[in-house]
Prior knowledge:
single chain; 7 helices
Amino acid sequence: MESKFPNILITGTPGTGKTTLSRLLEDQLSQEYPGKFTLIGLSKMIVDQMLFKNWNKDFDVPEFDEDMVCDALEPRIQQGGLIIDFHSCGFFPRDWFDIIILLRATNTNIYDRLIERGFPEKKITENIEAEIFNVVHDEVYESFDPSIIISQNSNTVDEMQANLEQALQIIRQKIISC
Ligand code: DAT
């Protein structure tokens, strides 16, 4: 699906920097294209709008319902200019996004960031294993056209800044060419 203002997915294992990058991106895009981009932190929306049928007590997270999530997002995707921040992506329709940013980070960084967030050890281990076994990476590449995927390392502030600049360049180019 082509839309004047691209839909952007920012994905990666928890702790890789999705929320931080999404906010920086939204901030900059709102200045350059006022009113054209909206950021959705999907984890929060799932809880706020109860887009789940079960609550996983072991990990204290909702087991989101893919259909409910897609139904809630669909009208906004059609409008374009949506930035979605989420750690999973295989259930989204293949033609929803114009640009997908996949963030990666080292185990040490993920560990430190999730400890700071107060995650229990079990949840941290699960996320580190997911990063080691390329779970989100493989999900992205199996679900979307590789030409729209940008893989970025997000270990340092300098990398975050470079990732932001690269993403902005690609988004601006996409807007011009549409
Ligand atoms: P996510 O949304 O993927 O779970 P986050 O944006 O909340 O991750 O980041 C988790 C913490 O790590 C937060 O305190 C900011 C920090 N962080 C993220 N990316 C970083 C980077 N590239 N360099 C330094 N700190 C980073």
